[in-house]
Amino acid sequence: MDQILRIQMGGAAGPTAKTEPVGAYAGMGGRALTSTLVAQEVPPTCHPLGAENKLVIAPGLLSGSAAAMSGRISVGCKSPLTGGIKEANSGGQAAQVLARLGYAAIVLEGKPADDTLYRVLVNQHGVKIEPDNSLRMLGNYDTVEKMKALFGDKIATISIGQAGEMKLSGASVAFSDMELRPTRHAGRGGVGAVMGAKGIKVIVLDDAGMPMRSPADPEKFKAANKAFVAGLRQHPVTGEGLPKYGTDVLINVLNEAGALPTHNFTWGRFDGAAKVSGETMAETEIARGGKATHGCHRGCVIRCSGTYVDKDGQFVSKQPEYETVWAHGPNCGIDDLDAIAALDRLDDDFGLDTIEMGATIAVAMEAGLAKFGDAQAAIKMVKEVGKGTPLGRILGSGAAVTGRVFGVERVPVVKGQAMPAYDPRGVQGQGVTYATTPMGADHTAGYAVTANILGVGGSVNPLKPEGQIELSRNLQIATAAIDSTGMCLFIAFAILDQPETFQALLDVINTFTGLQLTAADVTALGKSVLTKERAFNAAAGFTSKDDRLPDYFKKEALAPHNVTFQVSDEELDQVFNW
Amino acid sequence: MDQILRIQMGGAAGPTAKTEPVGAYAGMGGRALTSTLVAQEVPPTCHPLGAENKLVIAPGLLSGSAAAMSGRISVGCKSPLTGGIKEANSGGQAAQVLARLGYAAIVLEGKPADDTLYRVLVNQHGVKIEPDNSLRMLGNYDTVEKMKALFGDKIATISIGQAGEMKLSGASVAFSDMELRPTRHAGRGGVGAVMGAKGIKVIVLDDAGMPMRSPADPEKFKAANKAFVAGLRQHPVTGEGLPKYGTDVLINVLNEAGALPTHNFTWGRFDGAAKVSGETMAETEIARGGKATHGCHRGCVIRCSGTYVDKDGQFVSKQPEYETVWAHGPNCGIDDLDAIAALDRLDDDFGLDTIEMGATIAVAMEAGLAKFGDAQAAIKMVKEVGKGTPLGRILGSGAAVTGRVFGVERVPVVKGQAMPAYDPRGVQGQGVTYATTPMGADHTAGYAVTANILGVGGSVNPLKPEGQIELSRNLQIATAAIDSTGMCLFIAFAILDQPETFQALLDVINTFTGLQLTAADVTALGKSVLTKERAFNAAAGFTSKDDRLPDYFKKEALAPHNVTFQVSDEELDQVFNW
Questions:
Q1: What are A560's strand-pairing partners?
Q2: Cys staple from A190: which of A53, A81, A374, A381, with CB 3.0 to 4.6 Å?
Q3: Which residues of A touch B169 (CB under 8 A)?
Q4: Size of interface A-B (CB pairs under 8 A)
């Protein structure tokens, strides 16, 4: 992992690949690497689809090793959706494979002279970039099938669907999972549009012949990893709730808390919640012969993903995540799991962020394009995106554009990015994260649901402003650090609650890398990542006015608790004043 | 003119009207009044289509008097297009009529409970607000015909077309002209969408029984006005060029200068320029029985407007202005005056900003939706807006949204508003104005074409950065003041070149109002308006990063002079450092 692969698409004689030493980016992984490289090399005021933007794909510091949970990958760029810096994070196989191939990052640069579509093969022999216009306007599923036919089934893929090719701001980058299906996505911020603007349809990774990365101290590493895994298995969230029901276990929890955004963030509870809960989904999957427990990448011990099959047992999609179920379900008034799974499959195939799409369809419903609860209308709308009709292009551009085009006032976005599945009035710490993270509304950037709702890492009243700033701040710092390790964010539950598991994580990192990181170093890393990201955004023109929720969250009270967002602007401005 | 009419649309029992003394806004007219009121009463971070935004319609300080050229009207609000403060300015009859009715402004406030459409009648007896859903989705022409049938032909109208009803960011507010046609528009910034969000389709003004406003010193006023008119008649631009050929006289001038933006700002010259020049248009109009010389409001002595008729002598539209001819002509590669007039008519009828629409269609052509030069395709696209199809809604939302939805990088906007008919590389002073005016790219805000191209008010090399900051600064200050008087901006040519005409203007103002304004007071007024506007924008989240042209103007050289935009960011930041 001591090399960076740069693919220059703007050369006069076509694309070229260059492998160079990791240099100044040494010791960085994941989000630390993507955000540092973007901050360093991309002009903050450039056009996100232009030659000067770069798409950085970086596995974590521990990816490609035997460390449990280390298979996350970061995708960074200037975002076409927010206009600010972006790191979108995904599971899937690519992180492990890319790391084993020796790359700390792939950087896509420049602007192609024409609209030829390219595929890239990276294996032990090097890099091959070839035009392949036969891939044009294929979905991710067909694209991966074609790659399988060409390169066998031991590969991992990084691809875009129709949405990325059309450079829509809701486009994702898809990563194949262990079954070689394009089900894991760096969804947020339109990173797929930047890949589309570079003219690359798919990157095929083949690590045949490459060994697993070896630790600095193999014995101690093994012991530390064992303790780390034991800690994850011991915590109720990572040891029981997530494996058994998947992330969708949160439907009942958030509904009970009165913070499940329903009908475009109008209410905090959904009548049909039980029908789309994780419990119902797991039961349905098991009864039909799908899988309720399954890992999204090699080395996962939480195994919160699954397989959703139809009534005949045929594969439909991966088990939709909580945020997807919420986005296409309660937020649109839809209580039909089969429809939600069909929407998840369409999103994955077209290469769309499920959160942005669900939020967008709810805005379209508020505009009167369809009735809340009309699942078939929702499916029809997402299909429009795949076809690239004008309506499809509007919707694929996300909630903010859709609200603008249809004259809707209630559009739940921050920095142009749609809010995920936690109403900021019902989980006020989450509201602080939405408002202030450099990423635009993003739940993972500082997941205050922990202390606000789950009682993990302490307890802070979700309906009051007190304590939310500190909570969000600490979580944002920790998250920026975790997103740099390649570790799945879900390890946070165990390391927040169990000091010995946090120590085990440090030991895993140190015995693998040979470093001597302390808790203070981890905090410093998180702060340094956030500082770089905020500096980029400021240079792009962001101010404190961008660190705000839309006004209506401060005015419209959310049932059932009848509470507005209570954290003041002055408090919000203190989040990064550490 | 000592009253403000406030129409509150958000009342529980429906809309209400309240007339109140002008109070703290006394002595202000036009842009000074709209910008002061918006800055004072509208929260900068509110949603432009929400209850808190206000639409302010204000005649100028001298409107309704016998002062020549005093018939301009200002429309102000928070702009749905730019997100900042907006003043859009129009000719037509309303300024004179509204001022004679005694109103310094009409302010539309609040948010209606449902989508009932209203018409408002203002006459000597007061104000009447009535629901009239029979007007729904009518064009401005049909709307005015209906008002004529109801209220006779001595009225003046302020209305929106389909675009305003749909709350599209490209929507204008239409003002009827002397022939009671809705041909004069406050076009820029989506002010029509704000009127649409207030649920008001049309305001009918009837000044029957109301006298002309009388001057403080009638004798001296008469003399001053005479000297002022003589000055206007004596200047070659206002005395000859504009009356004879209309504003479109600029096509040949800008083409010659190599600054006529062609094919979406790709080149500075257009092969078909002669076919769409003011000279050709005047010739065509006269030959067909139209009018090449005509005033847009009572009291106009420049008479730069006209009437465009078809081959059979039937009225098509008012004589399209230079910026309209450019937008729908050279910028889209179209050299057919009949097609351009048809587009002008469609824009006026649907209630769309012609500049934004032409710029948008060129962006759509760059996206591949039609070929440059295809006039029928352009007409078809504008018709989509009137129909409210998804494509129409995209286009009606302006160039920035269209660029975003279709993934186009070369989008000529500043603060989200499309650039008008002067390439900022070929007229660099104009580029400074586009970049820095609080209005978003706007040529009228500081019309540096004067000294850059026309040799009016001095001479500054249009292709070099030297002197442009000072030029734009002085023009922006003067314009903010003139836009507050109700005077047509075209008086600027004569007052810049002829000190005695500037003195005559001061005399007109002072003898009418009884004030003792000096040139220094005019400058102070202009500065104070700009300061309020910039403070509003800063509070809405604008920074110096918003005072920039898109990057590509600094990188792509413009033929035939092969020059990029040369004014540095540091210089741009000095414009308001007076």
A1: none
A2: A81
A3: 404
A4: 88
Shortest Cα distance, chain A CAs vs residue B435, angstroms: 14
Q: What is the DSSP letter of A175?
A: E
Report strand pairing: B118-123 vs B200-205. parallel
Contact residues, chain A, for B405 at CB < 8 Å: 168, 390, 393-394, 397, 401, 405
Q: Indicate the residue of B394, B539, B552 with minimum beta-carbon distance to A394.
A: B394
Query: What mean pLDDT comes out for the span A34-54?
Result: 97
pLDDT value at B268 more than 90: yes
Picking from A167, A406, A407, the nearest residue to B407 by CB comes out as A167
A551 to chain B: closest CA residue: B46
- CA B507 – CA B486 distance, rounded (Å): 15
Q: Can you name the residues that pair with B18 across neighbouring β-strands?
A: B6
The three-class DSSP label of residue A108 is strand
Nearest residue of A to residue B411, measured between CA atoms = A47
Chain A residue at shortest CA distance from B394: A405
- Nearest CA to A108 among A8, A202, A225, A211? A8
CA A177/CA A294 separation, integer angstroms: 11
Q: In terms of DSSP H, where are the helices of B316-427?
A: 322-328, 337-350, 354-366, 375-387, 390-396, 399-405
Q: Could you check whether the bond before residue B560 is cis, i.e. omega within 30 degrees of 0?
A: yes
Give ∠ CA A379-A383-A389 in degrees, rounded to 5. Answer: 135
SS3 assignment, position B104: strand
Chain A residue with CA closest to B544: the answer is A541
Residue B491: what pLDDT?
A: 92
Facing residue for A545 by CB, picked from B389, B540, B551: B540
Q: Which residue of B has its CA nearest to A543?
A: B541
Residues of A with CB under 8 A from a CB of B: 43, 45-47, 49-50, 52, 80, 166-169, 193, 196-197, 389-391, 393-394, 397, 401, 404-407, 409, 539-541, 543, 545-546, 548, 550-552
Mean pLDDT computed over every residue of chain A: 96
Q: Best of A160, A360, A404 to disrupt the B interface by mutation (most B CBs within 10 Å)? A: A404
CA distance B551 to chain A (A): 7
Complete DSSP assignment for A499-563: HHHHHHHHHHHHHHH-----HHHHHHHHHHHHHHHHHHHHHHT--GGGSS--THHHHSPBBTTTB
Q: Is the dihedral of CA A109, A114, A119, A121 positive or negative?
A: negative
User: Based on C-alpha coordinates, what's the Rg of chain A?
Assistant: 22
- A456-465 burial, b if ≥16 CB within 10 A, otherwise e? bbeebebbeb
CA A52 to chain B, closest CA, distance in angstroms equals 10
**By the 8 A CB rule, do B530 and B477 touch?**
yes
Alpha carbons A245 and B456: distance in angstroms, whole number: 75
Domains in chain B, start-ordered, CATH in brackets? 3-205 (3.60.9.10), 215-245+424-578 (1.10.599.10), 248-422 (1.10.569.10)
Residues of chain B neighbouring A546 (CB-CB closer than 8 A): 541
Average pLDDT over residues A87-93: 96
pLDDT at residue A291, as a whole number: 87
Mean pLDDT across chain B, nearest whole number?
A: 96
Q: Rounded to whole angstroms, how far apart are CA atoms B195 and B173?
A: 8
Give the C-alpha separation, A15 to B482, whole Å: 55
Q: What is the pLDDT of residue B467?
A: 98
Other beta carbons less than 10 A from residue A349's beta carbon: 23
B81-121 tens-digit pLDDT? 999 999 999 999 999 999 999 999 999 999 999 999 999 99
Minimal CA–CA distance to A77: which of A158, A198, A165, A159? A198
Residue type, B15: P
> What pLDDT does residue A297 have?
84
